[in-house]
Amino acid sequence: MTQWIRSYALGLLTATLVFAISYWNIDATPKTASKEEYKTDELIEQLESEGYRTVTIDEWKSMQEKNNKKASPPPPIKEPVTTFSIDIVSGTTTDEISRKLIQANIIEDAYEFETFMKENDYSRYIQIGQATLNSGMSLQEIAEAITSK
Fold first, then answer.
1. Tens digit of pLDDT for each residue in 69-84?
2. What is the count of structural domains for the chain?
């Protein structure tokens, strides 16, 4: 055991000496950037010679204004409202209703409709009969039209 501890201590001493010698032999002077004053004209000339284009703040603002005028969003396209009359018979499930509504382009996402019906407790109150729905209705309005809640 004593031999092992001595060997370990000798290894630590050797490692410390190696690091110390390396530390003292490395040139640790920090590299500082030379502080030279450049004129704006020299900088612009250098950039333009390398293929870059420089603009003043006023030119930049006028370019931004032109781009904003050109990039105005197009007017929203209004989709035609689709009307659908759904017949609900005894035993019709929310899943069947959502499939019918998807086929008629009344709703876009069947899962979202089914989740809405279950979370708001409409699925228990589906009313037997006929309901007229259109694609402009919200999920809330559709649920109220087909249920007795």
1. 766 666 777 778 888 8
2. 1
How many angstroms separate the CA atoms of 146 and 133, rounded? 9
Domain membership of residue 133 (yes or no) is yes
Helix/strand/coil for 83 = strand
Residue 128 lies in a domain: yes
Token pair for 107: 């709703």
What is the separation, in whole angstroms, between the first and last Cα of the chain?
85
The CATH number of the domain where 133 resides is what? Answer: 3.30.1490.480
What's the CA gap between 47 and 54, in Å, rounded? 8
Are the C-beta atoms of residues 122 and 149 closer than 8 Å to each other?
yes
Say yes or no to pLDDT of 28 above 90.
Answer: no
Partner residues linked to 130 by β-bridges: 87
What range does the domain containing 89 cover?
A: 83-146
Residue 71's pLDDT is what? 60
Indicate whether 125 belongs to any domain. Answer: yes
